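Q: How do we represent a protein-ligand complex in a form that can be generated token by token?
A: Start from the inputs.
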Amino acid sequence: MKPLHARYPFMAGAREAVQEASVDLAEVVATDEDVVERALERVEWALTDGTVGDTRRQTRVELLSYPVARVIVSTVDEHICTRKYAQAEAASAHERFVEELETETELRSTRQQHLSLDALLAEFDLGTAVRETGDGFRVTVGTYLELAADQWGDEWRLVNRSLVDGEVPVDREELYVLLKQAIRHRVVDGLPLSVPDVIAENLDEEVERVRETLSNMDLTTEIDTVVPDLFPPCMKHLLDQVQKGEHLAHHSRFAIAAFLTNIGMTTDEIVQLFEVNPGFGEEMTRYQVDHIRGDTSPTQYSAPACATMQSYGDCVNKDDICEDEINESHPMSYYEHRVEEADDDELTDWREGAGEDGDDDSDESPD
Ligand code: SF4
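Then emit the structure tokens for the protein with iron/sulfur cluster bound:
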């Protein structure tokens, strides 16, 4: 086991090192408190901080905490936990490899083993999809689309990029962001794992801790998943009305804006979603959403409960899930339930597809 493996435990070489050392994960979780503690820290920091925390000095502890953290995440088996964990591993690795790749050569040479850009590209089979040019890099369009699909922001949309002979020019910083996404895909790959009982039973306490952390988090902002197909019928209807350009009463407009804010959308994203409405009024939308979010008011507002929606006539098209007494009380509960129950392939975030959707120029895309 090498320090490089501990710094980048998702790499194939790290996995091989663990296999070569004939590590028995069941024994590790039963006997090695340091590894289990660091593994729990990885997951808890992912949920609360968006990183996996500070690395431990001991290579073995740091490296083995990664597979144990994956076991904890798999046993918790909550989509939000898995997603935030993968994002945090990728974010921490990104910070680490940028620092390592940008460090002066003479400083790097003092290290036993360092990461090179070529090695990182080869790790994700990107050696032929990415090539360096005099003024940056070029990425084949298929690879670009795959890795940039997770990026929010107009600058990542293919229609806003140059396309030269089937390649997209990117600068170094952008290439690093694409590599971060490749890491996130690698981390999430295979999760949740099937965890043998003999391993799971020694992690009961840690799994419980993570569940507690999750339940203490404000899910109204932690859902952070925007899948309109899974919205409750009332919110689907209101969003539909907005996008058709219909006039909405103040309470209805408040309800849809608060719901979208509560599920983690930013003001800019809501403005973008509303702007297909010819009379939507950007300034008013911004004012209202900032107010709901608590940026321009002393309170953070929640979307109305079902009873309030019903009293205003905004509860429409109730379905079986609404009738279920667990979910009937609040549109947020309905949505949380749908997100939890959904398969991964149903969970394509609207923001991820925003680059290709709803743009008249999209036929320039080779998709
Ligand atoms: S019961 Fe609640 S979630 Fe269902 S449509 Fe009515 S307001 Fe929306």
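The two ends are 42 Å apart (CA to CA). The chain has 21 helices and three strands.
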